[in-house]
Amino acid sequence: MAYRQLFNVALQNSRRSFASSAGHSAHGESSKTWRNAFYIVGLPVVGLVYYNAFYLMPQHPERPEFVPYPHLRIRNRPYPWGDGDHTLFHNKYYNATSKGYDEGSEDLNPAKHHH
Amino acid sequence: MRQPFHLVEFSPWPLLISFSIFSMPIGLINYIRSSSISLLILGLFTTALISFLWWRDVVRESTYQGFHNKLVMKGLKIGIMLFILSEVCFFFAFFWAYFHSSLAPSVEIGAIWPPTGIFTLQAFQVPLLNTSVLLLSGVSITWVHHSIEEGNYKSAMQGLFITILLGLYFLMLQYGEYSETMFSISDGIYGSCFFMATGFHGTHVAVGATFLIVCFFRLKNFHFNKNHHIGFLAAAWYWHFVDVVWLFLYVSIYWWGSFQNSLTLKHWFCNSTMIFFWKKNNSNFKKSIMGNMCMIKDMYWELFMETL
Amino acid sequence: METQAQIELRKKVWAPPFDARFPNQNQTRNCWQNYVDYYRCQKLKGEDYAPCEYFKKVFTQLCPGFWVEQWDDQRANGAFAGKI
């Protein structure tokens, strides 16, 4: 009950504060600068970087040959999920288990499905 | 008793969250060693629940009961800064591990970095996009901050919504990257360092985004005003911190850490100009001056690689 | 002046000289580098090229025997981490 009443008082104070400031002429100066920086400079730059990442640069390279390097694919104990050899973010095409690439995964290059 | 401090009432949360935080590592070890995940889930769930209830109480003390006066606000700000400092130390440890392993790579991994057999992500593709997205979100959250201080409610709501979207977009991109890496967390020291550092950063972005979402609803319900918005301030500082950590991750792990086997700037330049301007007719490009330069450079590059 | 006996002894108990690339007490990298250099030398110059044997002399002195066995196995599997 007390919370409710206090909340209403706080709410009115807040609204008053927002409303009173809206009347001032000084309002909106520096926030406008930052908003403009966001829309005019930032967004186009991110758009260009997006275009570069997904359209200019080569996508989905071929996977390397599996080599049983002892310093890679370390399985001191099995993972607590699945067969214990596949990682949480296992990619059938790019990731090998300790035994090598999954069977029949040679044709799963994501590039072949996109284009 | 008249004094300017906020003497908090009795609360069950400190004790309860101690138990639930303790059950998280115990549950994690139990999951790894005996495949029973229940204690881990219980720990995660109760920690999330008690955090929610505790912070709900803090919001009530601040917004509805008005206990957060000027002096209390000052204390809270110092508290937030100290918390972020502890987070800096946390990430410092991962960078230490990374540079320890990469600056003098051991003979087991071929005495080079990235280790033999590790094919890194391309720093100038999605990771660069991630960098720009986080930097942009840093701009938009500053826009929100100024809007709140000017009392411009609508602009603040809009900017905060965009900031949250950018944070979620970052997480989406990172998920896409994770599912297409050519290495895993079990691929030796490289996988450990990479996934520990970027994974913890990713969870921090998720927490920061949650913090911003809470701020969004508090803003919507008029919890903030021009000179009293500690909750938002904490979220904004935290967001900037997460942003800065990413810059270090990007420069050291993604970029510097892939010098040995990444596409060089030359590759990037030739490849992108080729695809961009001469996508439809490759032979025309090869005949052009730019094309010739790229081809000649390619030849030198091959020769240079052979001397290694 | 060294006597003939001293020279004979010195040849028998030969030890790798100081290598400025590896000034620390830990000689792991020195051992490893000479192992890699030996097989790289043989690859580039042929197995009968006598100067290559110097590298072998150094790494057999510096490396623990079981490291060399491990690395030989890895080379046989094509899974040696060094660039040869």
Automatic annotation (TrEMBL), chain A:
<keyword id="KW-0999">Mitochondrion inner membrane</keyword>
<keyword id="KW-0809">Transit peptide</keyword>
<comment type="similarity">
    <text>Belongs to the cytochrome c oxidase subunit 6A family.</text>
</comment>
<keyword id="KW-0472">Membrane</keyword>
<comment type="pathway">
    <text>Energy metabolism; oxidative phosphorylation.</text>
</comment>
<keyword id="KW-1133">Transmembrane helix</keyword>
<keyword id="KW-0812">Transmembrane</keyword>
<dbReference type="GO" id="GO:0030234">
    <property type="term" value="F:enzyme regulator activity"/>
</dbReference>
<dbReference type="InterPro" id="IPR036418">
    <property type="entry name" value="Cyt_c_oxidase_su6a_sf"/>
</dbReference>
<dbReference type="InterPro" id="IPR001349">
    <property type="entry name" value="Cyt_c_oxidase_su6a"/>
</dbReference>
<feature type="transmembrane region" description="Helical">
    <location>
        <begin position="37"/>
        <end position="56"/>
    </location>
</feature>
<dbReference type="GO" id="GO:0005743">
    <property type="term" value="C:mitochondrial inner membrane"/>
</dbReference>
<dbReference type="Pfam" id="PF02046">
    <property type="entry name" value="COX6A"/>
</dbReference>
<keyword id="KW-0496">Mitochondrion</keyword>
<protein>
    <submittedName>
        <fullName>Cytochrome c oxidase subunit 6A mitochondrial</fullName>
    </submittedName>
</protein>
TrEMBL record, chain B:
<protein>
    <recommendedName>
        <fullName>Cytochrome c oxidase subunit 3</fullName>
    </recommendedName>
</protein>
<keyword id="KW-0812">Transmembrane</keyword>
<dbReference type="InterPro" id="IPR013833">
    <property type="entry name" value="Cyt_c_oxidase_su3_a-hlx"/>
</dbReference>
<feature type="transmembrane region" description="Helical">
    <location>
        <begin position="12"/>
        <end position="31"/>
    </location>
</feature>
<dbReference type="Pfam" id="PF00510">
    <property type="entry name" value="COX3"/>
</dbReference>
<comment type="function">
    <text>Component of the cytochrome c oxidase, the last enzyme in the mitochondrial electron transport chain which drives oxidative phosphorylation. The respiratory chain contains 3 multisubunit complexes succinate dehydrogenase (complex II, CII), ubiquinol-cytochrome c oxidoreductase (cytochrome b-c1 complex, complex III, CIII) and cytochrome c oxidase (complex IV, CIV), that cooperate to transfer electrons derived from NADH and succinate to molecular oxygen, creating an electrochemical gradient over the inner membrane that drives transmembrane transport and the ATP synthase.</text>
</comment>
<keyword id="KW-0472">Membrane</keyword>
<dbReference type="GO" id="GO:0004129">
    <property type="term" value="F:cytochrome-c oxidase activity"/>
</dbReference>
<keyword id="KW-1133">Transmembrane helix</keyword>
<comment type="similarity">
    <text>Belongs to the cytochrome c oxidase subunit 3 family.</text>
</comment>
<feature type="domain" description="Heme-copper oxidase subunit III family profile">
    <location>
        <begin position="1"/>
        <end position="258"/>
    </location>
</feature>
<feature type="transmembrane region" description="Helical">
    <location>
        <begin position="37"/>
        <end position="55"/>
    </location>
</feature>
<dbReference type="InterPro" id="IPR033945">
    <property type="entry name" value="Cyt_c_oxase_su3_dom"/>
</dbReference>
<dbReference type="InterPro" id="IPR000298">
    <property type="entry name" value="Cyt_c_oxidase-like_su3"/>
</dbReference>
<dbReference type="GO" id="GO:0006123">
    <property type="term" value="P:mitochondrial electron transport, cytochrome c to oxygen"/>
</dbReference>
Automatic annotation (TrEMBL), chain C:
<keyword id="KW-0496">Mitochondrion</keyword>
<dbReference type="InterPro" id="IPR003213">
    <property type="entry name" value="Cyt_c_oxidase_su6B"/>
</dbReference>
<dbReference type="InterPro" id="IPR048280">
    <property type="entry name" value="COX6B-like"/>
</dbReference>
<dbReference type="GO" id="GO:0045277">
    <property type="term" value="C:respiratory chain complex IV"/>
</dbReference>
<dbReference type="Pfam" id="PF02297">
    <property type="entry name" value="COX6B"/>
</dbReference>
<dbReference type="InterPro" id="IPR036549">
    <property type="entry name" value="CX6/COA6-like_sf"/>
</dbReference>
<protein>
    <recommendedName>
        <fullName>Cytochrome c oxidase subunit</fullName>
    </recommendedName>
</protein>
<feature type="disulfide bond">
    <location>
        <begin position="31"/>
        <end position="63"/>
    </location>
</feature>
<dbReference type="GO" id="GO:0005739">
    <property type="term" value="C:mitochondrion"/>
</dbReference>
<comment type="function">
    <text>Component of the cytochrome c oxidase, the last enzyme in the mitochondrial electron transport chain which drives oxidative phosphorylation.</text>
</comment>
<keyword id="KW-1015">Disulfide bond</keyword>
<comment type="similarity">
    <text>Belongs to the cytochrome c oxidase subunit 6B.</text>
</comment>
<feature type="disulfide bond">
    <location>
        <begin position="41"/>
        <end position="52"/>
    </location>
</feature>
